[in-house]
Amino acid sequence: MNAEHGVPPPQAGDGTRAVRAGLPEPVKYEPTLPGPVFAAHFHLPGEPTGPYTYGRDQNPTWTLLERAIGELEAPGEPVETVTFASGMAAISAVLFSQLKAGDAVVLPDDGYQALPLVRERLETYGVEVRTAPTGGDAQLSVLEGARLLWIETPSNPGLDVCDVRRLAKAAHVAGALVAVDNTLATPLGQRPLDLGADFSVASDTKGMTGHGDLLLGHVTCRDPRLAAGVRNWRKVVGAIPGPMEAWLAHRSLATLQLRADRQCANALALAEALSGRGEVTGLRYPGLPTDPSHKIASLQMRRFGCVVSFVLPDRGHAERFLGGLRLVDDATSFGGVRSTAERRGRWGGDAVPEGFIRLSAGAEDADDLVADVLRALDGAGR
Ligand SMILES: *Cc1c(COP(=O)(O)O)cnc(C)c1O
Predict the structure, then answer these.
(1) Is CATH 3.90.1150.10 what the domain over 257-380 is classified as, yes or no?
(2) Mean predicted lDDT score pLDDT of the chain
(3) 382/247 Cα distance (integer angstroms)
(4) Is the CB of 200 inside a 6 Å radius of any atom of ligand 1?
(5) Ligand 1 centroid, distance to 329 Cα (angstroms)
(6) Is 210 in the pocket of ligand 1 (CB under 6 A)?
(7) Which residue in 85, 86, 185, 223 could disulfide with 190, CB within 3.0 to 4.6 Å?
(8) Rounded to two decimals, what is the model's pTM?
(9) Cα-Cα-Cα-Cα dihedral sign, residues 11, 153, 132, 99
């Protein structure tokens, strides 16, 4: 018998771990997953010590969610997780808690579209920002003297992959901390801490929670001092998750393995179908054996994610394709149970061709999804 009821052994599978992640010890007449705790303050006679004092510092609903995420990020290991109001809040917490004027930081030049906004802010505060592409481990060439290396793999939206172990090792030799934006992969796709990162960071708005109905982010680290810096930043800026969002997220984690497996299988089916089309160029999916990133991805990823990207001949072609889809919503974001696609160039932030499409595979039946996409492609070519 287990020492602790309900805690899966470290060798348990992802599904077993996901359905039980972060659950409290069973208490007679209490629910399996306690509901959200709405509290700005807690009864606190006497000395103002924790765990629960004021709602900007801690909340029991966060505690359970943070434990759950930690169990997925590093099964069986003591790690600390800090949840945030959004992915950007989590990203900012790492960068702004760790960097000070005079430090150098290495960012990807093909990462999430809000990174250039962060860059501007960091430079205003006197931080030197260097960038290099994700592909080819190009960030290695600008590591010298850096305080922190920021990795995003697979990158969004280009889906390039870098070798996290290799980059983390080189960064540590150079005296830099390493953070990985793991949004696209989720901890079931890739475990950055196992690959050598100091911070695993994610927008849980996407595949982690998977229903397109909330924004959330998290940071997980092994080193309690690093976690303390990130937690202090959350308190200072107040970028805290709402209890309802935190509870919805925890509830959603139970199906993470089911969703991830289904969505990855659908993404692969779509990538295979798209690879046979003459009007499609620049097709990328790390799970496709012919993808330039497949070899490295296979060494560090356990699932290849739900996002496929490709290029149609021009803007009009891409717009006709999106307009012809019936089962795929024209919407931004990714990772949800309902498939979405968009012409990424409409935002103006990414260096992508006008016909570039980012498609996020949902949990529909693969045959239906593939048929819908092929039909829309047929209708889009005049
Ligand atoms: C969406 C996204 C973010 C930002 O997350 P929000 O929850 O929207 O703040 C950061 N990184 C990546 C890779 C993303 O896809």
Answers:
(1) yes
(2) 96
(3) 48
(4) no
(5) 19
(6) no
(7) 185
(8) 0.97
(9) negative
